[in-house]
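Changelog excerpt: complex records now keep ligands as SMILES alongside chain sequences, and the structure block spans every component. Example after the change:
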Amino acid sequence: MGISPLTYTPWSGTRMGRLKNVLRIVFEEAKIRVTVWSLIIILITYLLVYINAFYQAVRPAPIEKYGYVSTIGNLYLYMMLLSAYLAFNIISRDLKNGSIILYLSRPITRIEYIVSKFLAVCFHLSLITIVPLLLVYIIDIASLPQSSKFITEASKLLLPLIGSALLMVILFGSVTIMLSSLTKDGKWASAGVFGVFLIGGFIAEIVGSALNNNYAYLFYLWNSVIIVVINMFGMRISPRSPPWYHLPWYYGLSIIIGAIVLSFSVVYWRFLRREGIVA
Amino acid sequence: MTGEIVKVNDITKRFGHVVALDHVTVSFCEGITGLLGPNGAGKTTLVKIIMGIILPDSGEAYVLGNNVERDPEVRAIIGYVPEQDCLIEEMNAVEFLYHMAIISGVPRKDAMERVHIVLHYLGVGDERYRAISTYSAGMKQKIKIAQALVHDPQIIIMDEPTTGLDPQGREEVLALIYDLWKSYRKSIILSTHLLPDVERICSHVVMMSGGRVIEAGPIEGMLRGLDGYVVRVGGSGEDVEKFAEVFRDKNSLISRDDNVFVVRSEPSDILRAAAETGVQVRYLGRRRESLEEKFVCALAGDEYGD
Ligand SMILES: Nc1ncnc2c1ncn2[C@@H]1O[C@H](COP(=O)(O)OP(=O)(O)OP(=O)(O)O)[C@@H](O)[C@H]1O
Ligand SMILES: [Mg+2]
């Protein structure tokens, strides 16, 4: 038995061929990130989302939109945990054990490498956002009394739910990739995730209450997400919410898009400019 | 040149003030080519540029006529064994190689088969299901080579594959490289600072030093050019001097130690000179100057030359 002959043609020169290749890599990358830890985080998330939804669903209204705002708010925390786990090894590990050079010696471009890693992260994050949100939504619809008014209400909710989830997935995914590409030591990448997603909270609270300025609350990415969810996607909130919940959605969206763009710029600087990583 | 696989055209690469490659132009052809040079010669830099992992400041590299910088897909036909550690240690060999096969574009249905074919070829047994972190240095080296073979490339570029191995491991790796060419016609570029490795298995050699190519060509040609004969003569001091004079005049006396001469000349000429000058030839033997002397000469020339 020998190692030859060539039984396939590995060339994938067409655009479709390259895309297909990237998707295969995404699948592989996502698959090898499924571990006991990721499963624990995912399970805990499902449990907590379900408990949260259960308490929201016993409210008298047929379908309470602010139940979802609260669920999405909680998801921010669970996503942080999963992002910290993913940041620990998605790129940092390649830098640490040197396998990055093997990726770069394969028939893929650096952009395809980054995109594959990003999509693999997004896939995992989707498992704890889009999937549980849709599950809760389906359970809600199935368990609440059906009427034509209810159906219209409920159907209007579908796009906002998916939109909010996608926005969070892209936000967390890009920050995760950015932090993971910055260091060989996964610990720092994980710590960075908590830093990026929590530190704004402290700044926002301190500056916001000291200056009594609503805009200061935009520092906190969580607030920006909530502002977009409420004011852009039009989810209802309880009347007792703080005033900065009503800041215009485009402020929140700008902050989020800014964070995404900044993350990808850092990745670009790290990987894609001429003398990138592994010089 | 027949069977040119890699062409490097006037490549310069700087790292800050260090000129790692200085207008390097060279081509590699089919077979096993030794890329020989001392530490810091620029071998790794050259290899990474050929792979398109780093970009040159000027010049271009072609693999089978394709520019890697423009067509990264060319890498599907190249296998690369890096110099440094690069294995995903938490995985076992099978998982790791499967992952690498997929990234190289091997279809999912063929990938697992390829993994086992390659592991079998390299003589990796049931250890293949153990985490790579538990492997010995020799085993890890085999896995590094395996990942370069798993997508069945035509060209394999190995950067110091024998470094850090014990003599037996080194022997195994060299035999393996030789077999890759002999049995499977995989062309190999073998970067090394170990001259004996090159002499053992290479058909061509590219010698580098200080970021420049100082010698390139088929290895036999290089050895033939350096061929000489060792002659020990007997006779009176005067006759021996005359004998020495003959070769000194022809500028073919390489060295002399009393009555032992090293000359670059045909045997018939040596015997004729002996007869004419009246010395007796006590010993006449072929002397194959090793590439090493040339290597060391070149280094010395490079170090003291400028
Ligand atoms: N990333 C880098 N940054 C700065 N200098 C570098 C870098 N990579 C290589 N060099 C320098 O370029 C020169 C050539 O290095 P290279 O690694 O190509 O040599 P080499 O022939 O592979 O040596 P060795 O036998 O030690 O592997 C050296 O002087 C080295 O210090
Ligand atoms: Mg080197």
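Residues 17-273 of chain A form one domain. The first helix of chain A runs from residue 15 to 32.
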